[in-house]
Amino acid sequence: MTAFRSIALVKNKEAQSLSSPQDDRVALVPADVRTLVDDGVSVLVQSGAGSDAGFSDDSYVQAGAELCETADACAEADLVVSLDTAVKLAPLGSSVLLARSTGQIEALENHGGGTVIALERIVESPKVQSDQEILGRMAMAEALAPFIATKSMNDLEIRFIGWSDLFPYCIRRSCNRAPASLKLLSENAGISDMDVVGLNALYVYDSRTWSDPKKAVAKLKRKKANLFDVAVFVAEQGEEAVADYRDDHEMHQFGKRRITWDKEAGRAAAKQGLSLYAEQAGAKKTAKIHAAVSGYGPMELGVIEELLGQAVGSVAVLTDQQKNSSALNSSLSDADLVFVGADSDPVAHAVSAETSITIMLTADGTAGDSEGGGAGTILSADDWALYVPADEMSALVSCQITDILLGKERLIEGLEQLAPGVACARL
C-alpha cells in the first residue's frame, strides 16, 4: 500500500451505552484534523464521533473534515482510527485500523479483512533519552556515590525539598538503590518538617526552583545532614556528564510507549484524592496533609507532581524494600492519602482504616479486605477517571497519534516502510 491519503474517525460504541468514562475520549480532535488536512490528507468523521468529548460535528467540518453517517461508510478510508474497545466495522479490504486494544483486533479477525496496528503497542524507536533525563540520573548518581561506596544505602533517609523537572529521574534512580526511606517535602517546609538529620540523612534540592526562604539549608548543615543541590551539579558537571553518558551507553532499539496518558491520569487521581479529602476533613490545610505513594512509575510520578504542586505537606514514596518490611505499617501511620498501584500491593492491606483515603491507580478489585488491614475510603480507577476531562485527555492522545502519523515515524506514508516501533505493533 502507498501513502494513506484518507483517514476516517469513527464513533465509539455506536448505538451502545458507554461503559467507562474513558469511552468519552476521541482519537482525533478538530485541531489535529486541521493539521492532517493541511498536510494533504482527506479526513472523514462519523457524525457524533467527538460529541461525548465535547467536540461538535461542526467543529470538525470547520477543521476541514467531511462527515459520514455510519462507521461502515468510514471504513472506505485508507486508515480508520478509533479508541473504542469494541468497534464493529465492515470488512476493510485494503484499509488499516489504528486500534486501541484487542477488542478491535478480535473484531477485525472475525471479519477476515484489513490490517491492524495496535496503538498501545507502538513504542519509541530508537529509545529517546532527553538531556534532562540523563542529568537527573547522573546528578543522583553523584549524590548517592558516597553511600554506595560505604554500603550504607539501606540506612539512608532521602528527602527532596520542593520540585524540579529533574526530580522524577532523581527519584527513580534513588528508589532503584533501595534507601531506607524517601520522602518529598513541600517547598514551604521549615526545619521542623525535616524529620531526619545526621550522617544518614540526605536532602536534595534544586536552588533554581527553591529559594530556601526559611534558611533550612544552614540549619541542616549544623545538624550534620548531607545536602545536594542539583543546580550546582548541572552548572559544574552537567554538559560533560551528558556527553560522557551518551558516549558510554549504546542507544536501545526500542523505548517507551508512544501513546500514553499515565502522567496525566496520575495527576487526575491526585486531584480527586485531594478533593475527596477536603470533603471529609473540612478545613484542614493542604500543607498539613501527608500522602504516601506506592511505587515510582509514570503514573505515580504524576501523582507526586500534582500533590506537591498543590503544596501538600509531604509525600512518602514507598519502595519495594519498604513494602516488604515489617515497618510498613509505621511508614503509613501518618498518611492521610495513600495511592496504590494494584490491590495485590502489600500497601493496599496496611492502610489505617481510621485516617486514610486509598486511591487505586488501576481498576483491579478493592483494597483493605485482608485480615488485620483495612482502608478508610477507597476510590478505584473507574471512580477517579470521572475527574479526567474528556476533552483534555482526547487532545493529549490525539496529539500523540498525529505525531506518529506526521512526525518521526511518518506512518502517513503507508505500510511499506514502517518505522520499527510501529512495525512491532502491526498484527
Automatic annotation (TrEMBL):
This is Alanine dehydrogenase/pyridine nucleotide transhydrogenase N-terminal domain-containing protein. One of its GO terms (molecular function) is alanine dehydrogenase activity. It comes from Kordiimonas sediminis. GO terms for biological process: alanine catabolic process. GO terms for cellular component: plasma membrane. Residues 19-144 form the Alanine dehydrogenase/pyridine nucleotide transhydrogenase N-terminal domain.
